[in-house]
Specification:
Layout (H helix, E strand, L loop, with lengths): L4 E4 L11 H13 L4 E4 L18 H13 L4 E3 L15 H4 L1 H16 L1 H4 L3 E2 L4 E2 L4 E7 L5 E7 L2 E3 L4 E3 L7 E3 L11 E4 L2 E4 L2 E4 L2 E4 L1
Parallel strand pairs: 1-2, 2-3
Antiparallel strand pairs: 4-6, 5-10, 6-7, 8-9, 10-14, 11-12, 13-14
Length: about 210
């Protein structure tokens, strides 16, 4: 038996889409249930092997790698830096050489911390989430009176030497809550905390602006 399972999934190393993290996380969750799964997100590259996207991951790529996993039930995130590239090779100092990536990881941990009590009990749910085509929506139930929805912007063009993300603007999300959950308030996580959002209960579900 397993008390805690680690999901170690590196799609960019193998030229796979970042969204692969989502499906792999769901599969590991199913295999490990009811025990928790910790996700080890990709933040390394193999210069001497020349595999996949052979460069440091960008801040936007790291956020996506981390949030896909949280949206599909990861109870924790672990990342490590490839600080050297083999014996006698160049060594990297992440905080000095990649400050944007380092800050992006710290931001995700801080943002997750604002809803940590909910994430600690959250589990993926088969509920409908409708948003713009470029958004991946992952609903999680967090006890009988709350739910979380993790949205990931999939408008990302990347290759071995570049990464370009297009922001999603004026987003409207429709969420199908379970029948026993009566919405009283909706919040979104922002830098520094949470802020309320406008919402309306419609026949199609909870419409969030």
């Amino acid at each position: 038996t397993t008390d805690i399972l680690f999901s170690d999934n590196y799609p960019l190393t193998h030229w796979e889409p970042i969204r692969l993290v989502s499906s792999v996380q769901r599969e590991v969750m199913s295999a490990a249930a009811p025990n928790p799964v910790i996700h080890v997100y990709e933040n390394c590259w193999q210069e001497e092997e020349g595999r996949g996207i052979n460069r440091a991951k960008t801040a936007g790529e790291l956020r996506r790698l981390m949030y896909y996993a949280l949206g599909d039930g990861a109870r924790g995130l672990v990342g490590w830096w490839n600080v050297s590239s083999g014996e006698g090779k160049r060594k990297y100092h992440a905080t000095r050489e990649f400050p944007d990536q380092w800050s992006a990881q710290a931001d995700v941990y801080q943002e997750a911390g604002f809803v940590e009590p909910l994430l600690a009990i959250a589990y993926p749910a088969r509920l409908r989430v409708t948003a713009a085509p470029e958004l991946h929506g992952a609903p999680l139930l967090a006890g009988p009176r709350a739910m979380l929805v993790v949205l990931v912007n999939e408008r990302l063009d990347y290759s071995g030497d570049h990464s370009l993300s297009t922001p999603a603007r004026d987003v409207v999300v429709t969420v199908e809550p379970p029948p026993w959950l009566v919405p009283e308030a909706v919040y979104r996580v922002v830098p520094g905390g949470v802020e309320p959002l406008e919402f309306a209960d419609t026949p199609e579900g909870l419409r969030i602006q």
